[in-house]
Each structure stands twice: as structure tokens, then as C-alpha cells.
Design goal:
- The complex is a heterodimer.
- Chain A is globular, with a radius of gyration of 18 Å.
- Chain A is about 65% helix and about 0% strand.
- Chain A has one domain: Ferritin (Up-down Bundle), CATH 1.20.1260.10.
- Chain A contains ten helices and no strands.
- Chain B is mainly alpha-helical.
- Chain B is built from 13 helices and two strands.
- A two-stranded antiparallel sheet of chain B has the order 1-2.
- Chain B is globular and about 70 Å long.
- Classes of the chains: A mainly alpha, B mainly alpha.
- Chains A and B meet through helix 1, helix 2, helix 3, helix 6 and helix 7 of A and helix 3, helix 4, helix 7, helix 12 and helix 13 of B.
- The complex binds fe (ii) ion (2 copies).
- The site of one fe (ii) ion (FE2) has 5 residues of chain B, from helix 4 and helix 7.
């Protein structure tokens, strides 16, 4: 596979993860359980959307067909979005939202740590900036998982329910396919398989403090990386694309 | 903003004359009143009511704009809108803290909002059906908020005036950003221009109502002026807003929906048509297009979040016990 094609595909996957997760988080804005969270969740969403923008803009450059960040972010069909299924899962409740964010952030921290020395300088630069932001996501969500896991009976039940629902989606983060293999051998990205033990350890530490057991018996669910999404994705895209689809080709 | 010039708290106070005179002397000398200073009960009550209304307006105000975050037309607009709505939440937080210095808790104030006892600005009871409304809110609503808040930076109560100084900087940024959205539409396709004008037609009069009733009909306004909580009357502020905003509309080719609007050379300001006070009172009293939805959304967030807040308390308690046991 040609180098630029691999790089483009990797950038799109990462950008879609960040955009879709940022979109989900932003749905909370104005509806959070407390005012402090009405500030924290948009904070994290802004980080994610900011990273998505850098990644889309760079993908557009690599592709070199005149598409800017918005053309790529807004004007594709559903199977062309390559985000993890994990990040498109609906907010459900605050426990699901914090856990989804935590799973992803712990993975991304390990990913960016290695990507700082990517053979691709632009990606390395994006990694450096993202590293600074992600520590807050891990700390913030990790603290909530501990509070909820070891809070009241209800919060602990909800936290465990979230783990049961979301954990099966975490395997997809570590998947290998032709694109990943090519990107790893070109040293564009770290090998996700090598990140797995570090991810498990990071999650395990917080789960222990939260009195939650790490599931080991479940059927892994995947598909987003191949463009096969869940039923909720179409609704997310309907919101996201509404203006661009209704009023094509205008400047906003 | 958004105290609505409609405080309604009874400024009456039971302290003796010497106490009131001493207090007034400090006010007249432009001294700032701080939380532990002696103050007339009427002064405290008026401030609690006003800061509370203001805080609630920031929080309820997150809803009409939050409505467009997931549908913003570009990534740049999405990020800017998200940051703006987040700023409004931050304003709410500073203001609740300022009110807490007067002895009312955030929980108490929240319950008053949810029960309908406490008011918030009438402007947020209008819907945002189009993207242009996001521009219009920034330009007009934040613009009106600035008119009201700049004088509040000099309010006699220290914590409120300091909160306002922080808030004002962000509001003027919001106002410029909103105007820039509207300008982009006005310079866009005919469809975008129509979208901007249609939105302006809906928001112009409610924006003027944000300043509250005419001076003659405004209760307790005199006492607030005397205590230097308020520095200008409702009508003075409204006039300033009209004078600042009309030329901005002209510059981008939009038209205010007011056939009586015209420049008055003699007063060096615009004359404008009569405000529909029936509509104003209807919206203030709960009959606006979105009153029910706004409160329902706040109540849902509060109720759905109860288990989270309880868990945080329970966990903190467990930690405290564990620490004590370890000592
Ligand atoms: Fe504000
Ligand atoms: Fe604002």
C-alpha cells in the first residue's frame, strides 16, 4: 500500500474517533449533573474537536484533492467514517460517558506517547500537543469512575452496568489490519498490540480503587474501523451533517 | 445580563436611621461593600435576588444555544459555540459564588429556579430554530448583556462587581463572534441573507425587552440606584443599546423590524416604535414559547444528576472515614 494512502487512512481513523467522541460529549452541554461538569465535559470535547480539526486538515493535505477539514468531516457517507464503535456509543448516563471517555483516553495517552516519535513529523507534532491535554481527561474521568464505583449502591450498579456494556468495544482499539500493519512497519504509529498491556494496567489501577472487576469473559464487538457502524451512528451524522447537506456549498 | 431590570425584591429595610445613614455614606463615597460588612437587610435581599436572576439567566441561556452545538455548520463554528456556551456556564458559576457570599447556597437558588419562584431573563424563552439565531443571540443578546453589565462592574457590592469585570470581557468577545456569524450570513447567498433577516425580525423586539419595563413602571428601581447596585435606568440602557446596534445592522444591510425607527438629530439618538409590553409580561410570567421547555430541561438535568451528586458525597464521606480510621 502506498505510503500516503496508509497515512491518509490512519489520519481519518484518528480524526473520526476524536470528532465522534467530541460530538457525543458535547451533547451533554447544558444538561450535566452539576455545573462543574457543564464546564468539564465541554473542555474535553473542545480538546477532542481541536485534535480532530488538525488531523482532518492534515489528511486533506496528504490526499491533495482540495478537500478541507469540513469537506472531510461533514461530507462523507456513513461507511466512510472509520471511528471505533466505542466512541459512537450513546451517552446513556454519566457513568457510561465517563467510562467511554476513560477507556479511550487511557489508550490515546499510550498511543500519543509513542507517536511523538512518529516517522511523520506532522503527526508527531499533533501527538505532542494532544499529550498535554489528555492527562486531564484521564484524571478527571478516572476520579469519577472511582467515586461512582465506590459511591452509593445505585452509582456502583450503574458503573458496573456501563462496564458490561462498553468493555466489549475496547478490543477494537488494538486490532490489526493491512492499514495498521503498513503504518506500524513505516513507523507512522506504534503497534497497538504493544499498547494493550499498558492500557490494561492503567484501567486496572482505577478499577481496583473503584471496586470494579475487569471483565474477562465477553464477546468482543467491532466494525467501526471497517465502516460498519451501529444503529445510532446515522442519527449522529444526521445532526452533524444537517447544515452542510441542507445548504450545500455555502460559507458559514 | 440579564437581571431584566425587574428585581422585585422588596428593598424595604428595618434598620434604624443612623445605621442606614452610615451605610449610605459609604455608598456615596464609592466604597465597596464586602461580604462581612454590615448592610441593610433590604440591600442584601435585593442583591441576592438580582445576582440569583443573573446566575439563572446564564445557566438557562446555555439551552437555546446548546441546541445548535451538534448541528453547527463547520468545525470552527462548532468549537467556538461550544466554548461560548461553556463560558456562560462559567459566568453562572462565578455568580452563584458571589450570591453565596450573601448567605444563600447554590442548591437553594437552584430549587427556586426549578420551582418557578426565581426568574431569569425573558429572552431565553424564545426558540432557536435556525443557525442564524446563534449569530443573533451573540450579537443582540450578549450585546444587550454588555450594556447592562458594564455599569455593574462598578456596582457597590464588591464580589458582584468583581464577577462582572471577568464576565464583561467574555461577553464582548461573544458579541463580536455573534456579529461575525450574522455578517457572514448577510454577505452569503440570498438564502443565507433571508435566514439572517428572518432571525433578526424575531429577536429584535425581545432584545429590547431584555432591559425591562419603562422607568415609570419599574418597581424598586430608585432604591437600587441610590444603593448604586444600578447605575442607569432601564430606558437609558435600552437607548444606548439601540444607538449602538442600529448602525451595525445597516453596515451589513439588515433592517430592524421597526417602521418607526429613525435618527433623532436633536437627542443624538434613535427614536423607536412602541414595545409590546403585553408580550413581555406574558413571557415573564411563564407564557412564552419556551418557558415550560427551559424549566423542564433544567429540572431533568437536576433530577437525572441526583444520583451522581449523591455518589460524590457518599464517596467523599467514605474517604474521610478511612482517613480517620488510619490516624
Ligand atoms: Fe454570560
Ligand atoms: Fe455571553
Amino acid at each position: 500500500m502506498a505510503h500516503d494512502k496508509v497515512l491518509f487512512e490512519i489520519l481519518i481513523r484518528l480524526a473520526d474517533d476524536h470528532l465522534v467522541l467530541g460530538h457525543r460529549l458535547s451533547e451533554w452541554c447544558g444538561h450535566a449533573p452539576m455545573l462543574e461538569e457543564d464546564l468539564s465535559m465541554p473542555n474535553m470535547a473542545l480538546d477532542l474537536i481541536g485534535q480532530a480539526r488538525s488531523l482532518y486538515a492534515y489528511a486533506g493535505e496528504i490526499e491533495n484533492r482540495g478537500r478541507d477539514e469540513d469537506a472531510i468531516a461533514y461530507l462523507r457517507t456513513e461507511p466512510e467514517y472509520k471511528n471505533l464503535l466505542l466512541v459512537e456509543k450513546p451517552n446513556e448516563d454519566f457513568a457510561h460517558t465517563m467510562l467511554r471517555q476513560f477507556y479511550f483516553a487511557v489508550f490515546m495517552e499510550e498511543f500519543w506517547k509513542e507517536a511523538i516519535s512518529s516517522s511523520d513529523n506532522t503527526l508527531a507534532g499533533i501527538a505532542g500537543k494532544a499529550m498535554k491535554e489528555i492527562a486531564y481527561h484521564i484524571r478527571h474521568c478516572g476520579e469519577w469512575i472511582i467515586r461512582l464505583g465506590d459511591g452509593t449502591e445505585e452509582s456502583s450498579r450503574r458503573m458496573r452496568a456501563a462496564v458490561e456494556v462498553l468493555h466489549p468495544y475496547t478490543d477494537e482499539m488494538f486490532d490489526h489490519d493491512d492499514v495498521v500493519a503498513a503504518a506500524v512497519s513505516a513507523e507512522i504509529i506504534p503497534d497497538p498490540l504493544l499498547l494493550r498491556p499498558r492500557w490494561e494496567q492503567g484501567v486496572q489501577t482505577v478499577f481496583k480503587a473503584a471496586k470494579i472487576t475487569m471483565p474477562n469473559d465477553y464477546w468482543a464487538l467491532r466494525g467501526g474501523r471497517a465502516g460498519q457502524h451501529g444503529e445510532e451512528m446515522g442519527f449522529l451524522l444526521a445532526d452533524l451533517q444537517y447544515m452542510q447537506r441542507t445548504y450545500p456549498g455555502m460559507t458559514w | 445580563m440579564y437581571s431584566q431590570g425587574l428585581i422585585g425584591a422588596d428593598g424595604k429595610t428595618a434598620e434604624d436611621e443612623a445605621f442606614i445613614a452610615r451605610f449610605q455614606k459609604r455608598i456615596d463615597a464609592e466604597e465597596k461593600i464586602e461580604p462581612n460588612d454590615p448592610m441593610p437587610e433590604g440591600y442584601r435581599k435585593t442583591l441576592v435576588r438580582q445576582i440569583g436572576q443573573h446566575a439563572h439567566s446564564e445557566i438557562v441561556g446555555m439551552l437555546p444555544e446548546g441546541n445548535w452545538i451538534t448541528r453547527a455548520p463547520t468545525l470552527r463554528r462548532k468549537a467556538a459555540l461550544l466554548a461560548k456556551v461553556q463560558d456562560e456556564g462559567g459566568h453562572g458559576l462565578y455568580l452563584y459564588s458571589a450570591a453565596e457570599t450573601l448567605g444563600v447556597s447554590r442548591e437553594q437558588m437552584t430549587e427556586e429556579l426549578l420551582s418557578g419562584k426565581a426568574k431569569y431573563s425573558s429572552i431565553f424563552n424564545y426558540p432557536t430554530p435556525t443557525w442564524a439565531d446563534i449569530g443573533m443571540i451573540g450579537w443582540l443578546v450578549d450585546g444587550a448583556a454588555i450594556m447592562n453589565q458594564i455599569p455593574l462592574c462598578r456596582c457597590s457590592y464588591g464580589p458582584y462587581s468583581r464577577a462582572m469585570i471577568r464576565v464583561c470581557k467574555e461577553e464582548s468577545f461573544h458579541q463580536r463572534q455573534g456579529y461575525e456569524i450574522v455578517m457572514t450570513l448577510a454577505q452569503g447567498t440570498p438564502e443565507q441573507r433571508r435566514m439572517a433577516q428572518e432571525s433578526l425580525d424575531r429577536w429584535w423586539w425581545p432584545s429590547l425587552m431584555m432591559f425591562g419595563p419603562h422607568d415609570g413602571d419599574s418597581v424598586n428601581s430608585d432604591q437600587s440606584m441610590k444603593w448604586k447596585i444600578k447605575r442607569f435606568t432601564n430606558d437609558e440602557l435600552r437607548q444606548k443599546f439601540v444607538d449602538a446596534t442600529v448602525p451595525q445592522a445597516e453596515r451589513i444591510g439588515l433592517k430592524m423590524p421597526d417602521p418607526d425607527l429613525k435618527w433623532n438629530e436633536e437627542k443624538q439618538g434613535y427614536d423607536f416604535g412602541p414595545i409590546n409590553w403585553d408580550e413581555f409580561w406574558k413571557v415573564v410570567k411563564g407564557g412564552g414559547p419556551m418557558n415550560r421547555e427551559r424549566i423542564a430541561a433544567r429540572r431533568k438535568a437536576w433530577e437525572d444528576g441526583a444520583w451522581v451528586r449523591e455518589a460524590a458525597l457518599a464517596h467523599a464521606e467514605k474517604r474521610k472515614m478511612a482517613r480517620l480510621a488510619a490516624e
